[in-house]
Amino acid sequence: MAQYQITVDSQLLQQLFLGNSKDSGVAKLLESVLNQVLQAQATEQLSAEPYERTDERQGYRNGTYPHQLTTRVGTITLRVPRIRNGKFSTEMFARYQRSEQALVLALMEMVVNGVSTRKVSQITEELCGTEFSKSTVSDLCKRLDPIVTAWNNRNLRESFYPFLIVDALVLKVREEGRVRSRGVMLAYGVNTEGYREVLGLMLGDSESEASWSEFFSWLKDRGLRGVELIVSDQHGGLVRAIRTHFQGVTWQRCQTHFMRNILDATPKQLQEELYPRVRAILDAPDLETARLLLQQTVETYESKATKATSVLENGFDDATAVLLLPEKYRKRLRTTNGMERLNEEIRRRERVIRIFPNRESVIRLIGALLIEIDEKWASKKYLDMAEYLEWRDVYGRIKVQRIAAENCRVPPQF
């Protein structure tokens, strides 16, 4: 680890200890220290002090540019050294978080490819220095891409994932001189230890059954196993792919999307009246109660809201599949809301880009962000799985005994 010699003048110390605002004193002290560090780093990279003549010199200083940094003690102004060959900017950029690196890389690629706006140029200039080239972008990509690729293709065989939540985003990507809509398929799982884990992402041409089939095959090839419940919306291609690749696995239709579908089919004057009825069905303590409430709702509204009751009846079994689970697991597994929050984080960065310069930048940006989210998830348990694992064993035994009885055979002893 590099060590730097820092000097602090008496005026700064006086402001720190005797000034009216301690925060302003700390801010000035921090500003002084960081600016000295920046100059020391420039000296390290150039292998020469300012105005020093030496055969080992790696380049030349070209002044500084101001960069404001907001901290807990106020906004400070850094004087970032300029290096004629741009290497210092590259080193400073490497200190950003992976997701910020990927975001700025996408912006830089837009500029290099000549499709940027003036605002994008200003952002990249502020973050990366006054100039950067295709070789600079390529060098930075080489540093980040292997990290994202290794994470996105890691082996999943170390864990079992009883719960799988999947969804897709539609983004715009520039390909062959045209802007095309592409689907980004995402999945996260909850393992038997109760931790959430982002399992991976894949960029497809669309959200078709073929794209989802390729995505699921890829996850299974990497070792995805133990899936017992899949939560998603009712996208046709997605549902067909689930039934093909996860035969026998319970599918939970997202209740948020289901409710939206019902209300869309309900006459406007009846929406407020029907909503609590449907909500009561979905929040029922068990399937028997839910079916009773369903029957009452259909009888009441069949003639007044025919389409809505048809949607409700047809989707009831898939939307209430979660009622088979112990109550403590239902709230987090009855919708894709957790995935929607993940999507919102992606959208925050996607809105800055608007149109990705190529496919690689999509995987780089979203993958880098997901790595950081995955690391945060690893520090906090999402569900206590003990009750579920016990329930699963009991439920499995009952199911085996029922099948044996239906086939007139003596059920196995456990």
Automatic annotation (TrEMBL):
Coiled coil: none annotated. Required for the transposition of the insertion element. It comes from Brevibacillus brevis (Bacillus brevis). It comes from the Bacteria. Keywords: DNA recombination, DNA-binding, Transposable element, Transposition. InterPro entries: Transposase_mutator. Belongs to the transposase mutator family. This is Mutator family transposase. The keyword Cell membrane does not apply. NCBIfam families: transpos_IS256 (NF033543). The lineage of its organism: Bacteria, Bacillati, Bacillota, Bacilli, Bacillales. It holds the Pfam family Transposase_mut.
